[in-house]
Amino acid sequence: MNDAVAITLVGVFGITGSLLMLFSAIAMFRVRDALSRINVFSPATGLGMPLIVAAAYVYDLHAEGFSWGSLLMAVVAVLCLIIVSSVGSNTLSRASVLSGQPVYRKTVPNRLASPPAGAVDEDPDAPKEPEEPTGRS
Amino acid sequence: MIIVVSICSIILAAAVIVGLVRVLTAKDLGSRAVISDLMYFSAIGMLTMFGITVSSSIVLDAIFLSSMVGILATIALSRILTRGLR
């Protein structure tokens, strides 16, 4: 791989990934609540960071030549970023709902705040009514 | 290579600065947790670009390890949000 190809690939991957991170940061201003912010945060970790890993791998390929260790490390890093950040986003959104962070008032229908009409929403863990005392002594 | 990597670093630094401004102006704690996560990943990107600049050979190792332990910060923040409850 000659210099021009390496620089072009690093540039395309790196600048696209960095721009995705920047656009994600700007999008944090345009949405109004924590759940939507978690939603617009996914492009940064799902596509931006893997592109930056690709840029780093192309640089490694250019500087030190091909090796299976580097390839394995890059593939595992991409898989980790996708899987781990999905699990992390899920945990964070669950925590933000459970801790009562405000939801934007124009979010309708908000099924998290009020169940849809006709839904059976009984709490299986609710304490049962005390039974009538029978004639047991 | 230097020019390309500098452009990437500048864009990522801009992302961190925008995130900092948003953390200062955010009202609720959940938004702050999300934005600090975004800043963490931007910092990993800046570390990678710095490694490419100085021709380091551990660029992939650094990004590999930091992508694996990145979930710890997120889970710690979510546990803090719920006051330790799951």
Short account of what is shown:
Chain A: InterPro entries: PhaG_MnhG_YufB. The complex is a heterodimer of chains A (137) and B (86). Chain A has 137 residues and is an all-alpha fold.
Helix/strand layout:
The complex is a heterodimer of chains A (137) and B (86).
Chain A: H1 3-30, H2 34-64, H3 68-98
Chain B: H1 2-25, H2 29-53, H3 59-68, H4 70-81
Structure description:
The complex is a heterodimer of chains A (137) and B (86). Chain A has one domain. The model of chain A has no long low-confidence stretch (mean pLDDT 84). Chain A is mainly alpha-helical. Chain B has 86 residues and is mostly helical. Chain B has one domain. Chain B is flat and about 45 Å long. Chains A and B meet through helix 1, helix 2 and helix 3 of A and helix 1, helix 2, helix 3 and helix 4 of B. Chain B: Keywords: Membrane, Transmembrane, Transmembrane helix. Chain B: This is Multicomponent Na+:H+ antiporter subunit F. Chain B: It comes from Brevibacterium picturae. Chain A: This is Cation:proton antiporter.
Helix content of chain B: over 70%
- Report the oligomer: heterodimer
Report the average pLDDT across residues of chain A: 84
Helices and strands of chain A: which structural class? mainly alpha
Strand content of chain A: under 5%
Transmembrane segments (chain A): 6-28, 40-59, 65-84
Protein name (chain A): Cation:proton antiporter
Biased composition (Basic and acidic residues) (chain A): 125-137
Pfam families (chain A): PhaG_MnhG_YufB (PF03334)
